[in-house]
Amino acid sequence: MTQDLNALFRFKDLRSYPLTAMHMIMGTRLCIMFGQAGRDPTPDLAVRLRSMDAARRVARLVRAIQDAWPDAFLVHRPCCMVLSPDEALLGDLVVAATRGDEDSAVVLMRDVFPAATSRHLFLETVAAAASIQSAQL
User: Fold this and answer.
1) What's the predicted TM-score (pTM) here?
2) What's the gap between Cα 112 and its chain centre?
3) How far apart are CA 42 and CA 39, in angstroms?
């Protein structure tokens, strides 16, 4: 039981995810922080991701997340290696998307979203992850 509680409250590290998931999480942080500051994140994302298409797809995914998420999507500062629970869920979603594993993605999000919303977020994540990967980062 003690191990279960420790695992439950242990924060994940950004560096434990594949590169595509790391870029997605960092892009999400930038989108949300820029949005709070009233700035368009797309130009900065395009430089970071080396692709305007990837920047647009990540920004679109973040808008979809913000529209669907039951509460505010919690992000840490860009310099922080520790992930919020929301960021960790996004990282797991990206891993499932890069594998094309929709069933795992729906299971990950079943407690948060209805199946239709989970599918929509999965498809947006697949598109964003593919665009990041095609930029050969």
Assistant:
1) 0.90
2) 15
3) 9
